[in-house]
Amino acid sequence: MKYLLLCCAMATVLSCSMAKRKYLSFAGYKRVGTLDTQFLPLDKDFQLYVRQICRVRPVPNFYTSRDPNHAAPAERCNCDDKPAGSNMEKMEVAYLLYSPTLRKVLYITTIPTYTLKNGDERRGLYDMPIYRADSFVNVANFNTFFAGEIKGNQFIFIQKKDTLRWTFTTTDNNRIITLSDISRDNGKQEESYGLDCSLALPVSFYKRNSWTMGFGFNFRSDTIDREHITFMKHQGIWFGREKNGNEDSFFPLFEFEANVDYRKKYPWVYFGAFRMQSRWFR
Question: Whole-structure pTM over 0.90, yes or no?
Fold first, then answer.
């Protein structure tokens, strides 16, 4: 039973969290500059891999029109394994960014949001035009951040007193990264959990040859241009640090070229420290 519960817990980590997101905007750059921040440039050395879960869109009925997750496991698939079609709907999106040179990895989960404006059918915004551009990383739906290091064929994440090791393999000329095992070491003992114990689909991430990052707000537009997207000013991520008792509390912070806040303050998108589930800071 303990083994099954731990497997289910890891499945939750690798799935999209449903926690309520919150965006805050700082008043100006000087305010941010007073904090102890570290900047990680997400330049061309960082490779982007995306995991997208799709399902065959069901015929609308009493349940599926109100519960977008009401679908049998057999209906779900990795989107990259299937040709694009009008009957496919994206359900989950997660990002894996890593640098072979810096030996750093950043895993980001997202939160699915939904709309009721398309008739009576409740459809996920992952299926809207902005998310059909697979090379665009949308900060608008970021949720949980895992920041770690690469050692051999493992992603290493430090989570409080625990060390998480995600064993991965690459296939198809490095086009696909697949996780095969997750282990947790608390300093006293190490436990390993095969992912097939709780996940129906392989945990596979597919490479994108070119990518850009921004904040997309008009999900229903048929075109993707600067009218609908706010691009980043610096292609990178700031990690701010605040003192929380005796423990440092880090939070992710993105800077954009234009305002993304209705209060017309400086264009920062800030995620609370509780979203940093692991970090590489020592």
Answer: no
